[in-house]
Amino acid sequence: MFNKLIDPYPKLSYLAEDELDFSPFSAVAVPVFPSDEIQIIKSRFITALVEFTKLDLNIELANWPDFTAKAGEIIEVPISSENLKRIYLVGVGESNNEDIRKASTSLGRRIKGNNVTLLSALSNNKEQIVNQAISFILSNYQYTLKSEPKDKKPEFVIYGDFEEEIERAQIMATAVWQARDLIHTPSNIKNPEWLAKQATAMVSATKSSSLSISVKSGRALKDFGGLIAIGNSSPNPGPRLIQVSYAPKGSSSWPHVVLVGKGITFDTGGVSLKRPYESMTAMKSDMAGAAAVLSATVAMAKIKPKVKVTALLMAAENALSATSARPSDVIKQFGGTTVEILNTDAEGRLVLADGLAYADLELDPDYLVDVATLTGAASLGLGRQYAAMYTRKIPLAKKLHELGNKVGEKVWHMPLLDDYAVALDSDIADFNHLADKFGFSAGSVTAALFLEKFVGERTWVHLDIAGSGRSETDAGENIKGGTGFGARLLIEWLASF
Ligand code: BES
Ligand code: MG
Ligand code: ZN
Q1: What is the pLDDT of residues 80-101, one digit of tens each?
Q2: CB distance 270 to 233 below 8 Å
Q3: Closest ligand (CA of 376)
Q4: Is the domain of 249 the same as that of 347?
Q5: Residue 349 catalytic?
Q6: Within this chain, do residues 145 and 179 fall inside the same structural domain, yes or no?
Q7: Would you say residue 166 lies in a domain?
Q8: pLDDT(308) > 50
Q9: Domain carrying residue 148
């Protein structure tokens, strides 16, 4: 009866319409739509529920005159019919994807940490079912290294014949969950070698012949000047280039997407030490881009789209040490471009430049996409709800914008302002990477302009997720810490090929 279970995530399944039976459930959720005179809308489900509970839900509603049915508003009706202990009357607002996510996370949070088996009938639209299910799971995310963790968790059952939708939701929620686990892991545990091991384990767990992984380290990285300059700052096992490929039989004639992820396992700033010091605490999440591209690529084994995908995780620790790069060093990026380092805290663009140039020169991508917690400036401009998206390809930008709204990872198209490119000039190298000359102060834009120098003629998109990659509060789908931003958007986009 309970189809398709995933563990250790909260269980998620669907209940076929002709199997409707309330007796196994301890809670039921019913949608309420805003109107002048709010009433529970009759349906087969509601009729059966009323019959089972002998409860007039409209009388219950009338007890709450302030209830407006705005998305996420909840009335909790206690009851005792066999196992059933609670009926949640849930406002679903406009009942679009965004409001369904709000309603679902609000409900998910309400029962988080409890052994509740919830039957939910908040929507019957396929797209919304996917969103509802993902939001349930993500609102219950937790990461704990407590010595005695609490392991109570709810179980979500969505009413209706939604096998495909629940499967899609499980794939996407799993990807976000995995990315979050990687991001939440403290940096005394996660170093580049650890990340490579996790990626290897994730790939082999799929048991899919369409996925493969290779890891470059040591001498094999000798042409990757950015990765070396940053990664050699750490006494931990040095930098890694982790390459994960989704290339099923026949994929050589398909479009090829290369995803490059910033994988700084901790960012102290290096010699140009981060200030204020408190801002450093969040920097275990500086590999959120790598986490997103990894988990999205691994998800391809189940989605099986007709697109070849290569993920490049640029993994390095940016430590403060005697082997850190110095402000004024000049390095040679992959492909030979020389770059003057002026601030070792602008390390992300140096490791990404190697990845982008490697993709352009060696991998022949049709699409080149990088995802990076690159600049504090991105969150100054857009806050935490939107990622800054840079690309010269307007239709592609529109598509990603739409898909972002659909899945709840919103991106805003930002301008690559050529007027600011002169800030990248250097007296002694091809470029400087800091671009703080002339006081243009568009830090997210100039970082994007720097990256663009390494993408050749490729169709390229840069997502600066410094804001959206991390939440500062426990709210909605997120807990304080890594959000896993990018995984859903990438999966949705790749699935559309
Ligand atoms: N990892 C940071 C960017 C960041 C800041 C991510 C806040 C998440 C939250 C990046 O490496 C960095 O330090 N960027 C500098 C660039 C500056 C030195 C040009 C920044 O944004 O201040
Ligand atoms: Mg930095
Ligand atoms: Zn960084």
Answers
A1: 999 999 999 999 999 999 999 9
A2: yes
A3: 1
A4: yes
A5: yes
A6: no
A7: no
A8: yes
A9: 3-161
